[in-house]
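Quick question: what would this complex look like in 3D?
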Amino acid sequence: MRWLVKQALVPFFPESDGLPGIAALDLDGFLDRYQREAAPLMRLGVLLGAVVFTVTPLFTVYRPVPSFWLSADTLDRHADRISSHPIYLVRQVVFLLKMVGGLCWGQHAATREKLALEPYPADPPKWRTT
Amino acid sequence: MADHVSHTAYSDRRVELDADFVVVGSGAGGSAAALTLARGGASVLLVEAGAWRDPDDYPVSVYGAMRDLMDDWGSTITRGRALWPVVQASAVGGTTVINSAISVTTPGDIFAQWRDTLGVGDADFERSVLDHEARIEQELSVNAVPPPALGRSNELAILADDKLGYGGHVMRRYAKDCEGTGQCLQGCKKGRKQSTNLQWIPEVMERGGHVVSCAPVKRVMFDGRRAVGVTGRFKHPSTRKRGGTFELRARRGVVIAASATHSPALLQRSGVRLPQLGKHFRAHPGTGVMGLYDEIVDMNRGATQGWASTKFRQSPGLKLETLSIPPELVAGRIGGAGHKLMKRLEDYRHMAMWVHAVRAESAGTVSNGFMDKPTVRYTLDRPDMERLRHGIHHVASMHFAAGAKRVVPFIHGFQYDLGPDELDKLLDAPLEPRCYVAILSHLFGGCVMGRDASSGVCDDVGRVFDHENLFVADASAIPTNLGVNPQHTIMGLASHFAERWM
């Protein structure tokens, strides 16, 4: 399950000249937290997004293979095309996947440093109990 | 009895408390009602589904805000032509913890509309609500965003307004000495935002009231047609595991203030059967336009929202405002993926996000759904979609007036960005809701005020028709779209209502 989501998220946020890629930003740790903490509907949505991402190369880059068998260039093209797919529900479920990936990518200290933002301290898991 | 009762384990004994009034929901409406009741000498139990977090406990990241402060991770979406998120908090203080604390006095035409077309309220009603709003302004330190806290994005909007004459203004907010940390949406860790968990709820407790948190109410209990309390089961704020049960009994009244989505759903699952219950749900759907500037904007520095214009509130029905968002939200929002997306994200420091909210006439419904999650059915009709498109054009015009070289309108099937000479292409943008990702942030209706049970759920003091000791005191009672930020109206109305229950 984890592997499926991870291989679907990495192509959305690859490393660029000026910004780090999501693969180098403790994606495993983030997905651990997400699996543990997110609402069931959100977890299900991300999993569904990863499945859709994996099985749809035939409809975007015309290759009858799962996404993880695509070459780097073709995978990049697939990620871009599936994120703006004409079928609304496909687009929406991929949007959720990308949004969650964006949370991981955008909040990481390495990304924030490149954008001249202070690193976030840890979110305190506290509330009043008495 | 302790001032504050929170989550108890599944195996623990049932928590049983009683008071004059039980108020369900601690946001703008619930806390205003609870405070008015407490100041009037009544004993109050304030029950809230979310946890109580103080500013030191607020999260800093958007992930943390979704986890700790949003209602069910913000996963409520409209069911209709398009799936649009409905933004609400679940925390002691409600949405006042995560909004931008914008204060706008209820426009006079709203009272006239309620009076003349719906038969709701009279001159005394208007005067009373406005008096409360004036008092609340003082109590919650409403003032304009101080210039040092504006940040460049808000300054650019002011510049654009000067050029276009959009009649805008620096926002007035419930914030004391704002430092412009750009963290409104995650809760202000500096404690500058005067959310109700910091101001009013402590006073309710000082006056002998009690708060029950992590306590989603399952149903209202009745003795015949008379509301006598509420019951439910605690929910752990982190693991979401079900805890022990609670039963809160009310001697004089049960006040429903759980939001425009949860209040009608709660009444429905409690067996209230009124023809208008769950109907007349309305909202201000909003979407944004990103401006790309040559200069560094760093929109995440400065007040999250600092400028607004209500010039187009009546016609075509729009509110324009700034809204800075952090990189983790921009990453999901910007179109494309892969290297194309990363290239676009490299411009983050040069981006300014401004938005518009549509004063939509479309109405939807709310019902109690699976696992007690409210189901919101809502679709914008064509005139509202035309308003939405109009708003995008206005916001894009502002960006160009402020010196943006390109704008990004976030429309599926449309070109990613446009230059100044392409502005009018936006007037031909699609009117299909599925081409947009709008957010519903201001919600109204579901338990609307009316003359009688054929036209509303409650009367003009929040009393639910055909029931005794059952009241509504939140945005769900508001029968029409305001066209401005509703927090002030909700607080004014709830205070006016509660005064009359005494």
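Answer marked as accepted. Chain B touches chain A through 58 residues (CB under 8 Å).
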